[in-house]
Amino acid sequence: MTTSATRFVQLLGLVALVFYGGAQPAVGRAAQQKMSTATPAAAKVNDAEAAPTRLDLLRGAYGEDRANNDLISYHLDIRVDPEKKYISGKNTIRFKMLKDGKRIHLDLNEALKIDKILLGETELKYSRDSGAVFVDFPETLRVGQTYAIDFYYSGNPVETGRFGSITFKKDPAGRDWINTACEETGASMWWPNKDQWRDEVEEMEISVAVPNGLVDVSNGRFVGKTDLGDGYTRWDWQVHYPINNYDVSLNIGDYEHFSDKLDDLTLDFYALPEDLDKAKRQFSQAKGMLEAYQHYFGEYPFMKDGYKLIEVPYAGMEHQSAVTYGNHFANGYLERDWTGVGISPRFDFIIIHESGHEWFGNAVSAADRSDMWIHEGWTTYLESLYVEYMFGHDDAIKYISGYKAKVKNERPIISARGVNATPPQDQYFKGILFLNTLRSVVNDDTKWFAMLHDLFQHFKYQNIMTEEIVAYMNQYTGMNLTPIFDQYLRHTTIPILELRFDDAAGTVSYRWKADVSGFAMPVRVGTAGNWEIVRATTQWQTMKAPVKKADFQVAEDLYYVKVEKE
Ligand SMILES: [Zn+2]
Questions:
Q1: Ligand 1 centre and the CA of 324: distance in Å?
Q2: Which of 203, 239, 399, 515 would suit a FRET pair with 358, their CA atoms being 20 to 30 Å apart?
């Protein structure tokens, strides 16, 4: 998703009492933290300190009744009534048992009614607790066996959260326009599923019946549409890959469709009739974006499903293979220069950012919301790779440095595990600055870009935690990057390079001040164009100063650090 419009700030200040895992996730220290979700331009820190809600604890936990099964597929088969703002239908949930068990834990928002849950012909008992649904089976489900249940539900879903979760709107011409975007609030706001990040289905069918004349664009490959003879038409979509629950999307409207191809990849675009010309012009940026990301990471990860871009009434969302777009058909982000350095107006931020999530967020996914920087920090870094591919390295560095003004350094990027909480926005801004710093630490662009490519290929279609990225990079580079990851992601402050000059002796002493013991990071110092790399640690070392204190620089565009000269 994107960083936000300010009017939604209040809705997001959910969780404040959190336990931060260190490098050993089990070790936690309680810390009461601030939560900020506004863009810096209108930054307004929400200082409210609240415990996680029962809903968050239930959603975020991965207890026995979640861990005893592994999702195989969903078939979401629903009817949407725009007039009544009403959904009804079922989700067929197929799963394999990983342990013997008699109960599984699913989720559905309390506003929606459970009509019945069937295993074959047998109606199952269940209990509801906040948004959780515990389904009980009369016989023990056996390890290794596969089961399918039909979860029937209906009701008026609640419109809530930054993008509404599901909204029943009218387009500017007064026609029905219904969209979902539920990353914050959860997919269970509008359909029943195992609403967590660790376990994904391997594939999914989405069948959506809507009044004749409307179109539904969902994820995956369009299979066909069927006139149901009662004033409704069912649109069928097939997702051929693992998919996050929150990526599953309805886009119902009077859409016009146009298409294109990039080699073997199908590109399908959907816009309101009045916006068709603007969309044809603006969406042409998709090809360059895809070429850039394919250059760095390899083939678009959802070839069988194709790439789609769909006009919606909110800023945008990374819905897998069905990226949604509401950026006014203009460059920049909502017509602003996003990082304020003149680069952002050269491209459409939403096309570049949300589509970047196809690689990081959708193909490579975090297994817990705590490690969401794997989605947002990486995708923000992908923005700079796009800039580098299109406009060169200097502009990329300029673009990246523009993010410094947005960082708050108020709490760590990696937040509490097992709680459904959104990490701070620093996950985007500090995330890109951190990855750019790592590139400088590796100090070998050939190796760096090979590693990015190989890391993506290694982890695609998986749900991972930060530790797996660290281990992969340590092994790939032969370096110990763990303290650097820990300092930037698990602590609030960035490392400070302390410099003490003795101009008379012509020397400078240097060391890092950092929270992580044993922190060590090479850094370029001296003068631009003539940098020297010093292998600074937390211990004082002394070097011959190439220039006097006043002229002595640190390559702060290449390393996101603080410098203190004495
Ligand atoms: Zn994003």
A1: 12
A2: 399
pLDDT tens, residue by residue, 428-472: 999 999 999 999 999 999 999 999 999 999 999 999 999 999 999
Expressed in angstroms and rounded, the spacing between residue 381 Cα and the centre of ligand 1 is 11
Q: CA dist 182 to 46, 76, 154, 235, 310, Å?
A: 21, 16, 18, 21, 16
Amino acid at 7: R
Q: Say how many Å lie between the CA of residue 373 and the centre of ligand 1.
A: 9
Q: Would you give the DSSP letter of residue 131?
A: T
316 CA to middle of ligand 1, Å?
A: 9
Q: Using DSSP, how many helices (H) and how many strands (E) does the chain show? A: 12, 31
pTM value is 0.91
The count of C-alpha atoms lying within 13 angstroms of the C-alpha of 489, restricted to the half-sphere facing its C-beta, is 33
Eight-class DSSP state of 382 = H
Ligand 1 center from residue 375 Cα (angstroms): 7
Neighbours of ion ligand 1 (CB under 5 A): 1, 376, 379
| Residue pLDDT, tens place only, 518-550 | 999 999 999 998 999 999 999 999 999 999 999
Tokens 């009403």 correspond to what residue? Answer: 86
The residue whose two tokens read 């003539």 is 530
d(CA 326, CA 278): 12
Question: With 0-12 CB in 10 A as exposed, 13-18 as middle and 19+ as buried, what is 29?
Answer: exposed
174: left (phi over 0), alpha (psi -120 to 50) or beta: left
Please name the residue that has the structure tokens 């006043």: 550
